[in-house]
Amino acid sequence: MNNSKIKKVLISEEEIKAKIKETGKQISGEYSGKPLLLVSILNGAFIFMSDFCRAVDIPCEIAFMRAQSYYDGTSSSGEVNITMDIERDISKYHVVIVEDIIDTGRTLSGIIKLLRKRNPLSLKVITLLDKPSRRVVDLKADISLFTIPDKFVVGYGLDCGEYYRNLPYIAEYEE
Ligand code: IMP
Ligand code: MG
After folding, report:
1. CB atoms within 10 A of CB 104
2. Contact 126, 52 (CB under 8 A)
């Protein structure tokens, strides 16, 4: 790991915390009284999920999937591979996908297609970060906490070659 590649903090811990609190409130209001399932995509979204679900103050269930589209470096393979699936019958739930970042949109559109086939009561997408300028498929999150420019970022769950996930903030990475 080479910390000199961390150029600058793009989004601070405090900014992330404040936005998560606000979004948690919004979701709690929207899904109150409904069977809610938060589905997070590993590995990138694990920290966002753990903070986000604690900002939700209504009963909800939590599940994880794993999909790969980026491998070692900073470029997309273009292939979405579901390597771990949810075991639950999602037709009984309002599903909210909790994602770390939407870049090209390939990963999430693959996951959405798959989940729609299983007839959830409803399906929404919350993403911590959105890089709309990089999109190659037609996909829009229902809620994006932060829109960022076309920069490779690390921290708060996001990695470069599996490093930097443990940074408590989002930083710009020198490619
Ligand atoms: P997409 O399929 O191109 O939208 O990218 C999806 C996945 O690529 C995300 O869930 C991340 O795991 C990874 N990714 C995309 N952009 C970045 C970045 O700037 N930093 C770290 N990981 C990224
Ligand atoms: Mg991800």
Report:
1. 17
2. yes
pLDDT in tens, 72-102: 455 555 567 789 999 999 999 999 999 999 9
Q: Is the pTM of this model over 0.85?
A: yes
The pLDDT tens digits of the residues spanning 37-49 come to 999 999 999 999 9
Q: What amino acid is encoded at 91 in this protein? A: S
Q: Burial, 58: exposed, middle or buried (Cβ in 10 Å; 0-12, 13-18, 19+)?
A: middle
**Which strand (E) or helix (H) includes residue 52?**
helix 46-55
Task: Give buried/exposed letters for 76-92 (b at 16+ CB in 10 A, else e).
Answer: beeebeeeeebeeebee
At residue 60, what are phi and psi to the nearest 5 degrees?
Answer: -155, 160
Q: Does 106 sit in the ligand 1 pocket, CB within 6 Å?
A: yes
Tell me how far the alpha carbon of residue 54 lies from the centroid of ligand 2, in angstroms: 20
| Residue corresponding to tokens 């929404």 | 124
